[in-house]
């Protein structure tokens, strides 16, 4: 199936001269295709078109939606076959019954109104890559005016850098798979944006994939926040390294612990003995300090509720069996409900009584 969609995409792109290959593809395509002249008169049809008796009366393609006797609506997508012959074009049909009214015109029905409320860009793309439907948010994002007829290619409306990925993913979805991807776009006004796209196959009443449904979301703010967090953590790591302090990070909901390489150097715990929990860490704490540290840690939630800082001094036994005096500090990160969820801090080596 993927090969057939590849062939259709190549055929409808309009590049190169007309050859037996496109003609052969039209004949073997599993969905209805027809050749039409400049006036829209159907010149010939492929076997899939001819085999559907409901399409037998379609002799003229005007660009308008076509209503069949069974109350279904089809939307034609027309493009030229190649550069060599401007008089003959190819027409494919997509079932858009859910997108049009019983009168054959676009309607502000429940589904359309619901999609227009979405902040996300919602679109339906046919196998040639042309837009069959675009909600209000999508029109604004892609610069398509209200009332402007659709039928333009999606890739012609997006930043060129995203085109190869869009074509690859669209082919995958038209072959029956769900797909998602993200891209960074630099728009003409200079604004850089990040978008997440989720595409699913759009099937007709017989379960055949005749289009792709795509929901695109602007995640620039989320991406910028994540990037800012990454940069802050990178700066934190560099500052800690310069100060000779190791970093530890604890998920207070799961007690999952992560320590960087310098943390192991400061405590003297072998890096091979990866510490992932407080229980594992306590094996290296001096036996005279274990009870106090455990008591402090068990009471941490109450302590964290009163202050946004954690501080403790204790002794650890390093890999050589020597005692090291260390100090651990941490800042507490809270969720939107003000509950402590994460502790990020430092560990530094302290002077011991023996030096």
Major sheet details = 5 strands, antiparallel
Helix content bin: 25-40%
- Could you give the distance between the termini? 74 Å
Unreliable segments (pLDDT under 50, ≥5 consecutive)? 1-21, 101-110
Write the H/E string, N to C: HHEEHEEEHEEHHEEEHEEHHHHEEE
Percent of residues in beta strands?
A: 25-35%
Strands side by side in the biggest sheet? 2-1-5-4-3
> What overall geometry do the principal axes of the alpha carbons give?
rod-shaped
Question: Would you report the number of β strands?
Answer: 15
Structural class: alpha+beta
Enumerate how many helices there are, as a single number: 11
Look at the structure and give the mean pLDDT.
Answer: 75
Radius of gyration using CA atoms only: 32 Å
Question: Could you name the key traits of this structure?
Answer:
355 residues; single chain; alpha+beta; rod-shaped; disordered N terminus; 5-stranded antiparallel beta sheet
